[in-house]
Design goal:
The structure holds 2 protein chains of 2 kinds. By secondary structure, chain A is an alpha/beta fold. Chain A has 6 helices and 5 strands; from the N terminus they run H-E-H-E-H-E-H-E-H-E-H. By secondary structure, chain B is mainly α. Classes of the chains: A alpha/beta, B mainly alpha. Chain B: Keywords: Cytokinin signaling pathway, Phosphoprotein, Two-component regulatory system.
Chain lengths: 134, 154
Amino acid sequence: MSDEDIVNNNLTALVVDDSPMIRKLHEMHLKKFGLKVQVAENGKNAVDLFRCGASFNLILMDKEMPIMDGAEATKELRIMGVTSMIVGVTSLDSIFERQAFMEAGLDHCFTKPLTSENIIFLLQELNNKNNEEN
Amino acid sequence: MEVGQMQRRLVDYTKTLFMEGFLDAQFLQLQQLQDESNPDFVVEVVSLFFDDSEKLLNDLSMALDQPNVDFKKVDAHVHQLKGSSSSIGAQRVKNACIAFRNFCEEQNIDATLRCLQQVKHEYYLVKNKLETLLRLEQQIVAAGGSIPTIEMGF
């Protein structure tokens, strides 16, 4: 993938995290790579967005959030038939907890802090996914 | 003081913060996200970090002040502080949180109280350093200069 391909994409993303600081940070990381980004402050808001007909190529999902956490929200979205790429971003260090989060229906799980390398990897995965579906 | 001098002072100050372990590479990633269309990005993120952290430190003080300490709650707060400090590159705060979480697991009240003091100490130190750094950047911009990028190979 050329650098231009990476930036000139029509990809949309949803950042789900209860920390305003993390939302702002991750939103900017994604915007830098040309994605159109929306944010949600907990799992329930994310699910509601999809119920209202919104859709996104990529969802960055925090684990620990009030009202509805990342694992519950991921399960709910998969039950609803959402096929977006869902990526967990968490500071959980226990392998057991990360496994449980993955089993909720994640495509990938990264440890905080999110880096530019993580995003480049995700863009390549999204590109591969788009190519497979077309 | 002319712009070149101010820029050199900023670079030296930033390098010191890295060498003393206050900031790590994640902070550089943060600075790289700032550009002409988002000239206040770093200031905004750092302010949010301050708001977040001060609230968490208050919550921690209250949680540890209870007659029956709920260590799960304490751990959840520390966990969040660890996440935000690591995302901004506040390395010493992050490390203090890691130690804190170990003592939460042991449910050791004396040790966790000491950890809280340690985390607060590290937080106020880095807050002070970041405020100084951002002030230096502001002075450069106000004088018409640009903020120099720091190379990590020092």
